Predict the 3D structure of the following.
Amino acid sequence: MKRILLLCFMLVSVFVSEVWAQDRVVSGTITSTDDGSSLPGVNVVLKGTTVGTITDIDGNYKISVPAAGGTLVFSFIGLTTQESEIGARSVIDVAMASDVKQLTEVVVTAVGIEREKKALGYSVANLSSDQVSQRAEPDPLRAMQGKMPGVNITGGNGAPGSSTKINIRGISSMTGNSQPLFIVDGIPFDNSVNGNDDPGSNTVTSNRAFDIDPNNIESISILKGAAASALYGSRATNGVVVITTKASKKNTKKGMEISYNGSVNWQEISGIPDYQDVYTQGSNQVYNGGFIGNWGAPMPDYVDQINQQYGTNYTKTYSLYPDGAPYPDGTASNPISNRYPGLFPDLMQDYTMPDGSVRSVSAPYKIEPHDIIGEFFQTGRVVENGVTLSSGSEKASINTGFSRMNQEGIVPNQTIDRTTLFFGGNGQLDNGLFVSGTVNYVNTNQVSPQSGASAFSDYYGGQATNSIFARLFYLPRNFDLNGLPFEHPVDGSNIFYRALDNPRWIAKNNLYESNVNRVYGNITAGYDVTEWFNVTLKGGVNTYHDFRRDLIRPGGIAVPNGGVTTDDISNTEQDYNLIMTFSKDINEDLSFRALVGMNANERKYSRRTIGGANVITASLLKTNATSTQIVLRDFDRLRRLIGVYSDLSLSYKDFLFLNVVGRNDWSSTLPQGANNYFYPGASLSFVLSDAVTMPSFINFAKLRVAQTKVGRDADPYQVRTVYALGLPIASPRYSGVFNTATLGNTLGNATLKPEFTDEFEVGAEARVLNNIIGLDVTYFSRSSTDQIASAAVSRSTGFTQEIVNIGELTNKGWEIGLDVTPVKLSNSFTWNSYFAFTKIKSEIVDAGPSGEIFIGGAGSTFGTIHRNGAPYGQIFGTSNARDDEGNILIDKNTGLPFPTQTSGIIGDPNPDFTLGWTNTFSFKGVTLKALIDWKQGGDFYSFTAASLMLRGQLANSVDREGLRVVPGVYGSNQTYAATLDENGNKIRNTTPITAFDSHFSNGWGAYGQDEVNVYDGTVIRLRELSLGYSLPKSILDGTPFGRASISLTGRNLWFRAPNVLEGLNLDPEQLTATADSNQQGFEYGATPTTRRYGFNVSLSF
Amino acid sequence: MKKLHRKALAAFMSLILLFSVSSCDIFDLDVNTDPNNPSEAAVDLLLANVLSNMSSSLAGGFNGSSTGFMAQTDNSDNFNFSNASWNGTWNFLYSGPLKDLNELVAAAEAQGNNPRYLGIGQVLKAYYFSTMVDFFGDVPYTEAFQGDADSPIKEPAYDDDAAIYADCLSLLDQAIANFAITSTVAVRGDLIYNGNMTRWRKLAKTMKLRLLLQTRNVSDVAGQIQALVTENDLITSAADDFQYEFPTAVTPDFRHPWYQAAYAGGEAGFNYFGHQFMYEMLLNGDPRFPFYFHRQTTTVLNPDDPTDKQTIPCSQRTDCTYGYFVLNPNITNALFGSDPDGLSSSEEAYLAGIFGRDRADPSGIPNDNPIRTIPGSYPAGGVFDATAGSGGGNRGSSVGYFPMLTSWMTKFYLLEASITLGTDISKVAASESALLNSALTDQMNKVWDFGSRGQTVAADESTWGTAYSWPVTFKTRAALRAEVLAAYPTGGSQTARLGYVLKQAWFANFGNGIEQYNAFRRTGLPADIQTPLQLPRQFALRFPYAQDELNLNSKTPVIIYDNPSAAVFWDTLKFQF
């Protein structure tokens, strides 16, 4: 944007300026401190006079000045004004630094309207290309993390391409979509996850905004509040992310520019738990080579020490030969040979029995700890390359380019790659028509081993599931996962020490694949009918096909016969806008602009899923190479929306701005005849510093206020209750197939109404002390009423849920952006600090007739719940029974607590506040940038912690000789009250339990009540660190490069979560499920997050 | 003029663009009819769905836990439930098969002239809801399933359990009346009797007998029971048995729940069988043993080996009665007349495969899936225990079934009626012992019939000594029955006779724990089941209500399920340990 202004200004200035002859001539070149490039169009004025000039296209100027004295003032919009005494010099070169605050920024608001930022009565966050590109982050959403107040972005997990959730000003929907509308190049951009897998079966599914390459982003505007987004209509309730890609960039210079970006980054696991290496696998302090848990005897190296310390009598014997003789000290029978005798001759030995006969038995296997995690995970890599070409003439310009990203995760065979081709152009035709258009093609391929979360395989003690994470983090310390065989040498089937799928075998064979082809583009035609009346027609299509495959090789445990599931998803969105704009200056003080538009939108979705069971040959994993196929889904969805909208702006003396908007929608998803709804809004901006004379230390001051309403329609097909066909049943007794049907479980609602979000926002912006401090504060209060929700109903009604318009959900919050430049030296050293602070408080005011909505989670009574009076999405689960004083009640027989009769709220996953702190240090082309991110509060239930504890894995469980007592008093599980002694006093628990029972058991330890495993998720992290250097022009002279910069980047290099279980080293920033789920507050144990570091090169010709 | 022309041109072009890129369809908003699901469904589709889903639930969770209560497996054998325990089942039943059954009855009533479907719906409703009462006491009944009614009921009231029972009995009378009406409508979707209305009528009457007997402690039912017996239109032969046979297809997998656990995966993942149950059958030389159970291993674990020691049943406790059969001298002496050291290798190998648990053994779960005794060919459709072999891998016939109301059950009811109410059973059998003989004959024949399907079983058990290399000598069916009848305490007290009969029912009703659990709560018999090793809670007198129901329906009563005050109305015994 700066460049556009710069160019315009230059063009204008060229004609108005004139140079007067003076006594002598001073000349020089003005360059940018950012990249050393020359700056055209800079004002050069002799201070105190009207004498001045501007720099030419190469940044050179010449000015006549008086013979002696004088000071030159160099100024340009967006750059910090500089003064320089002439003295005796005849050449004065100046490097000018950018000053974002000084710029009369123009921002893109709803439906592509560009407006001066100071005229806005609401808050809009902007990010420019350089804030999201080359950040060692291929996910455009994660690249924005921590950079804007009011915007909360959470990455799913560390798997390449895993989904990311973005919430703007809290979450405004209880059971529906909470993700903002994405507008890319003027057309809605579907960001669905299309997940149907639960976290137990797949945790890597992407959200489709991943199809946007951050390096191809020209700019992002986030329309946070209703006031900003209302014109976008029904989908704008959750805010709007407006992205302009480089394809629709407006040209800056004539001629041609080619730029290249490239980067290589490496990534590794962000934290490995502090494992204990003192005890072996087993239970009750006895080694057992078949167990998962680590409650066995001490490792050989610790036997003597522990015997000495505790007077125990452990030995270094772990297994016996068939005749009862022990295996050599410190060894046990080989865990793989035990299960597959003779299959691996290397792991067998010939053993001579006392009677002289020779038997082939398991060879000795050394009992020692292994770095299971460290060796299983690998160093991942992200490679990005992109080329952009821009060219233009007076009347037309084009942009084209391609980019490719290739990422390998830390898990073997976990990859994603993305290839983007784009072309965009615009031109002014001879007949006066302005035409522009873009087309983008993206191909995204994701591959991952089956990655169901461990909560659903390990913690629930459930059956083996087909996931690398089922037990990876909880394997016995003495099990050499990475050294022992994992596949059958003959038929390639699974090999493991017990009836589970080996993570290495899964990683090699059982893959999830997603192949997305996406095309999106738009055409705009505009015409100025008169000077004050413009008509613009804009239309576009955004379509993608996602071909997914789940390949399970036969020979495993969970799915012994293998299977191939194909899942083909297609989504096409068309969107058209006809916009008429009238703008008129009524008089010198008052100007007026009106916009009237019409919008038509259609979204069409289809999905077909076919499950093939029983793979015929392991060498061919195709649906037609399975012996049974079932069509699991054949689903179509179509919805349409028509809207008419208007936006009226009135500005008075360029310091008071009034904006009134209104929109009426007609939606296909609401009951016919009652499907239209209107919502208005108004906002006011008052630039105080332009209206009245301010003290000199105040550079800028503005107040704004807005009140707006946004309406929203429902999802399709929620109006009626329907039947559902079931899978046919073949009776073994009677011939033929019995088809089945059931009355659907969701009660449709024939009187469904649109839902509305009302938002009030008020804010102030100020810049003081010569722009050293800039502050932008916003308070908002939004209330979503008549929510269209799918609310659980008592199942005895015959239904599981009903579609309802219910109650109310409020979000109130503060957004503070503080920009401080504590140091700014004349030698160009600058330190800038930017704080993005967000504090949001949500409240479920009314969750419908039952006062609550349980939206699911880990179990049918354990998950996320909305309950009246509580904040959004609480953790609902069981707690230990307590007496009236809060003492835990203990069962005298077992020494363990017991649960309360009913479950309740046991944690609040909403953070108290978040703070992103960006520090930028720049000096002569070198820039050091660090983003520190602080999230305070936010409870979560950690299944990983639970599993690690119950499996005796953590270093903090090493103290396990001797008994312990759970603190509490004896109580009754019939009366739920403390038991009293003969004197009427409570009795302290003295029933001892073992360390094993303490950690493992169903009652107190990890298998205890749900509340035991809830932690506070406060985390501070170094999210981004980069060191960049722009080569100065002097070096580039004589090379073909116009600009060149290199940078080192690091991402998520460090974090600390002080209130999480010690030694867990777990990054609390993980989504409960995929981004399209409203569940929160659960960490299920899937791909851990990563830290990433590498370097980038950026060149332009 | 020229300017105007240009304006017109632009407007025209804009319109062309608008309508060429978007056909007029985009303005059609009447597209909200769900293209993916039907708006109505025929009653036969509902019937098949109800029978399949309800039978699976009864044979699954209900049967599983009640079998555990009766010490035949370790499923829920410590009675330790929370409100979450039955949440899923409750939710599924009310929003699934029970609702569809309600739809079916409503549709058949609305159609006016459809007495067959209506009668079937009424019989099923009586069976299912009396069973719901047996497990949950008061449940939503009259106000249930009204979520989509014209005046919807979102929080249905809980009907008194006795009142529901009374209504179930009245439904059965209505069904019997409906079956008497001539109708030309052929019943389809009937996975049980394939539209045979005579059998449905017999079921309705036998179901009536079942419900009346259940309430005999709280109501005077002797006359009504006598009338049914005298009429003699009950299920008394196997052809009329009310039973559900599970599909055998792997995909979709609707096989017997026990089969799925023991045979569907790569390796068996079944619960433990109760030691007492297996031991007594072995001790009796009961020939049903190799049909009921399948041994997976012949290897004896070494108690000196650390890994083996952890795996051996009860190795960490001292209070087991049965423990590890092959190393328990009491057991080896009783079965083979020798100490563990003196066992022959085939005796040792055989006993090594008897691997279950004492009642409510709270020990942790070792890696013993490949060792545990798993279900045999009856009733789950697994493998007949000719030789020991691993579960998993879809072995066996998978012809599993769930007996709901069979001829032998009828006969056990009649025995109980005769013993406790003095019912005259002469229409059915000459004496109590003859009736017991008849019940056992029916049941054993069913075991042989189902247990031999899809696999080779030497049908004549007198040849087993040569056909199989078992060290145990199993008696023939006839010999076992003769022994059982010979010991029948004909002149004994009511309790002695009823206890004897119900002990036999305990063996016979293997595969349907619901019958056993009901009989136990009604009579406290059989009285000689091992006392649980650990008791975090008392004997479950019923199930706790579902958590969701407590959250969402304010009318849900608050109860403590193992407290005597929570007992079901017909339970006057209120058993406590």
